Structure formats: C-alpha cells, structure tokens
Amino acid sequence: MDVIASTVFGLDVDSQSKTDHPFVEHASTLLGASKKPKGFFAICKQICLIIMLFTFPTSLRVVLANFFGLSFTDQESMKYFNNVIDRLVKERKQNPDSENSKDFVSQCSKKVVDLSQVPKEKVFMSSSGFQWTTEGLTREDFVANSTIFFGAGYETTATALQFFFYNMAVHPNIQQKLYDHLCEELGEDDFSYEQLQRLDYLEWCICESMRMFPPVVRIERLANADTVVNGITIPKGMGVQGLVYVIHHDPDYWPQPEKFDPERFSPENKTEIQQYAWLPFGAGGRSCIANRLAMLEMKIAVAKAMLSLQFERVAATKDPAEIKQKPAAAFFLPKDPILISAVSRSSF
Ligand code: HEM
C-alpha cells in the first residue's frame, strides 16, 4: 500500500503504523478489505467499476453507483480519491519542480489537457463513448490510469509474497540456504539498493515461486492480422489467451514442474529456459509496466521478513497447496487461506 501511495500519488502514508490514515482506510474500502473478504476477481471487478464511475459526472456517478450497489462508504472513498487527485494536480502545477514531482500523478498531470481548449478536429470519441485527444490526457484518462494501479499493483504483489512464504515454510532446507545467503550478504543493519542487486539466490527463489504460483494465470491479446500457429488459423481480431499457469507447469518446458527448485534460475541452468516459458509479468510491449519495481518490493519485503522470522508449516498447512482455478478467472488464489506460522528468530 505504501509503495502504491508513494510511487503513484507521491504520498507518504506509512500504512503499517497509521492504519487510520484516510488513504489506507479509503483504499481498503475500495479493495474490499474493510468488509468481509472478497475473491480477487470480485475485487478487480469492483475496481474496474469504480474506475468507470470515477470518470462520470458527479450526478450520473451517484445514480450509477446506487444502481450497481456500491455502498455509501465506497462512494465516499471514490470522492476521497477524486479530491486527492485534483489537489495533487493543482499542487504539482503550482510547483512543478518540487521534490515530490517524480511520482506518476506528477508526471501525468503535466500532460493533462482541458478538452474544451482542444481544437474540435483533434477530439475523438472512443467506441465506449469516451472523448479522447492526441493532444494529451483527458482528466478521465488520468484518473483511470492512476487508480488502476491499485488493482494491478497491490494484490499481485501480495499474492506473490503469500505463496513465497508458503514455499519457504514447506521447504525448510531452501529457507535455511536463503537465510544464510541473506545473513552473509546483508548483515544485520539496514541494506542498500546495491546490496539487494547482489542477492542472486533470493532472486532465483522469487522467480521459482512465481513460476509455481503465478499471481496472474493468463494474459490476453487481440490478433492484429490473420496468423497461423501450429497449423491453427487465428483470424484478425480474435482474442487469444496465453495460459501462464499451464505453461509454467508444462513438463516440456519445466522438468518436474511440481518440484520447487530455485536452481532452475541459476546462470548455468537459466540458458535452458525457453523464451516465453516464464511469464509471471507477461511479455512483449504490453508486459507488466512495473516488473522491476515489483521485484524490488518483494526482495525488500522478503529480506526484512526472513532476517527476523522463520516460516514453518503447521498442522493445517496444505502441501501441495490447493489452488482455486476457475476457467474465466485471471488471478490466482489458494483454495483455502494459506496457514503457516512465523516464529521470531530472536526466540531461538
Ligand atoms: C508480483 C507482482 C506483479 C505481477 C505478477 C504482475 C503481473 C502483470 C501481468 C501478467 C500483466 C499483463 C502483462 C501482459 O499482458 O503481457 C501486468 C500488467 C500491468 N501491471 Fe503488473 N504485476 C505485478 C506488479 C505490478 C505493480 C507493482 C504495478 C504498479 C505499481 C503493476 C502495474 C501494471 C500495469 C499498469 C499493467 C498494464 C500494462 C499495460 O497494459 O501496458 N504491476 N502485470
């Protein structure tokens, strides 16, 4: 949550210690975390709906929000983020060279145009009825692109981390090897970006964990020309899905695919990995915009957690983990909550 707040909105919210910060409360409301738990797909549907609603005029927004059954608190949260975005855009415009101007909102706010000031021949209508222009971003483009980061960046990283710690708990030898590696490279003090770059074994473990449990199970593309693949014709305009989970568990690409083996990603073995066989962040020009940020976030979270905690299986830990796979679902979830224990290393 803190990473999204600072990289996207330029806000320092410290969600771990200030759980009553309005940003945390409203983001939790939109993600469904403040109510009874929701499935990942339901959360993403809610975020898409909220993005749509953010971009309608206020009067229509209230009618639509009521129609779709968004609660009063959801609407309050939408209002909060709308106000935050308006305030930040105003602040950044007044003070474009400030220290805070590296975040996504600041970068985009420089490109926002007032459609009423754009020549009519440069304003177009999308098939879904939204106006857009080649002259810059509309306010709607801007709000939608800022808020999508909650859906794309928050749960994906959280899902990757929960399966990572699960893998550590059920593979104690690998956990010990990683712990020794972290102690050797980092020591006990805080660590630097350069030190994190040297943590090869940590990277292999994260890559292998995302191979076994990719947070996004499929990616999608539209064919922009008639194409023949393995004798099958894909006509122009047809939607095609790449089944990431299936590819990651295909023995043709990954010998013993159900074995958790970080060594697959060592420099000696990595050359055996076929191009496009490892796809947790997708591939090509529309791959994850933030894969480096996500890797960095996960390395920091894992290194901090593992230096002070040891993860262990408990009686209720399922091994192998049972996963929930619905044909249309894009996101990967455990069938039941993952249960492991975290024991403080200071108690040893
Ligand atoms: C472990 C964490 C993450 C995973 C596994 C992940 C995975 C993905 C995948 C599979 C895609 C679709 C790629 C494709 O179709 O080829 C995607 C797109 C995207 N991701 Fe991530 N992601 C993660 C973290 C993040 C974070 C932290 C952010 C932002 C702060 C983010 C922002 C985005 C955006 C904006 C897109 C759409 C890119 C586009 O359409 O051009 N992701 N991500």
Automatic annotation (TrEMBL):
Q: Which GO terms describe its molecular function?
A: heme binding; iron ion binding; oxidoreductase activity, acting on paired donors, with incorporation or reduction of molecular oxygen; steroid hydroxylase activity
Tell me the domain of life: Eukaryota
Q: What are the required cofactors? A: heme
- Asked if Metal-binding is a keyword of the record, the answer is yes
Keywords per UniProt: Heme, Iron, Metal-binding, Monooxygenase, Oxidoreductase
Residues at which heme binds? 288
- Which family is this sequence assigned to? Belongs to the cytochrome P450 family.
What function does the entry list?
Answer: Cytochromes P450 are a group of heme-thiolate monooxygenases. They oxidize a variety of structurally unrelated compounds, including steroids, fatty acids, and xenobiotics.
Q: What is this protein called?
A: CYP3A4
